[in-house]
């Protein structure tokens, strides 16, 4: 029996899906993934995501934002283009936005500038936030605290951080997205303990496909590509870690996700 679940973060417009995007969606449906939110990481990818989601009303949604890696490419028209996208019915959040000091693909001052721009946009439009943070906890939390009205409408997507970081975010009131990172015994072992402490009404699940393929998935997918159909496996691992029944966890994450994104 498949459990109805929602993938809050899938990079469905990634080129790795160009040859079989429809088949990927069909496999997701067979695995119980009823709704998916396509991640926008630049103005261009956000436009593509919204355009594609429009073809699947009620099933596909998207975000509109600029990832910190792409902040260096922002220009005078970036904020206005995101504002126009945010007005579309299929666009349900601002993001993916935030700070990434791990790779520094964009200068840190530029990352902070465009994170702030997107925080203001979400505030102006009264929209949820889909957030990215890596090795930038102090600046990230400080900037969010300057926008207290946004915090309870914000989800830290693909959380992989430390206990201290998790408890900081939970104390602030943020929602948390968990991916297949928790299935990796080398890097995600600590998450198996921490996931127990995330309140059920602030926990959401995602694949971040085509990235972060669950390491313990059997059989391993050809080419190693992650896809939304594997969300059921991730849900099962999280339920086991929390000592909960998968059906109860699935229902709770669906309730939380629909309330949060208004879908």
From TrEMBL:
The lineage of its organism: Bacteria, Bacillati, Bacillota, Bacilli, Bacillales. This is Hydrolase TatD. Keywords: Cytoplasm, Exonuclease, Hydrolase, Magnesium, Metal-binding, Nuclease. CDD domains: TatD_DNAse. It comes from the Bacteria. InterPro entries: DNase_TatD-rel_CS, Metal_Hydrolase, TatD-like, TatD-type_Hydrolase. A divalent metal cation 1 binds at residues 96, 208. GO terms for molecular function: exonuclease activity; metal ion binding. A divalent metal cation 2 binds at residues 132, 157. It holds the Pfam family TatD_DNase. Signal peptide: none annotated.
């Amino acid at each position: 029996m498949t459990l109805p679940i929602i993938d809050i973060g899938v990079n469905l417009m990634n080129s790795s899906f160009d040859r079989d995007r429809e088949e990927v969606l069909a496999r997701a449906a067979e695995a119980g993934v009823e709704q998916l939110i396509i991640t926008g990481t630049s103005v261009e990818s956000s436009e593509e995501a919204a355009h594609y989601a429009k073809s699947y009303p009620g099933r596909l949604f998207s975000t509109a934002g600029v990832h910190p890696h792409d902040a260096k490419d922002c220009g005078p028209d970036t904020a206005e283009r995101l504002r126009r996208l945010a007005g579309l019915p299929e666009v349900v959040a601002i993001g993916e936005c935030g700070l990434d000091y791990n790779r520094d693909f964009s200068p840190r001052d530029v990352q902070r500038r465009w994170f702030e721009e997107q925080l203001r946009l979400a505030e102006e439009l009264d929209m949820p936030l889909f957030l990215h943070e890596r090795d930038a906890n102090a600046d990230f939390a400080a900037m969010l605290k300057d926008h207290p009205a946004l915090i309870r409408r914000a989800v830290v997507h693909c959380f992989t951080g430390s206990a201290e970081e998790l408890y900081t975010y939970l104390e602030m009131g943020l929602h948390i997205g968990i991916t297949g990172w928790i299935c990796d015994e080398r890097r995600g072992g600590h998450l198996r303990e921490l996931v127990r402490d995330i309140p059920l009404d602030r926990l959401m699940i995602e694949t971040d496909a085509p990235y972060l393929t669950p390491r313990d998935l059997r059989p391993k997918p050809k080419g190693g590509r992650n896809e939304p159909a594997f969300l059921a496996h991730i849900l099962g691992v999280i339920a086991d870690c929390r000592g909960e029944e998968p059906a109860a966890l699935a229902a709770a994450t669906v309730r939380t996700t629909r309330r949060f994104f208004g879908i």
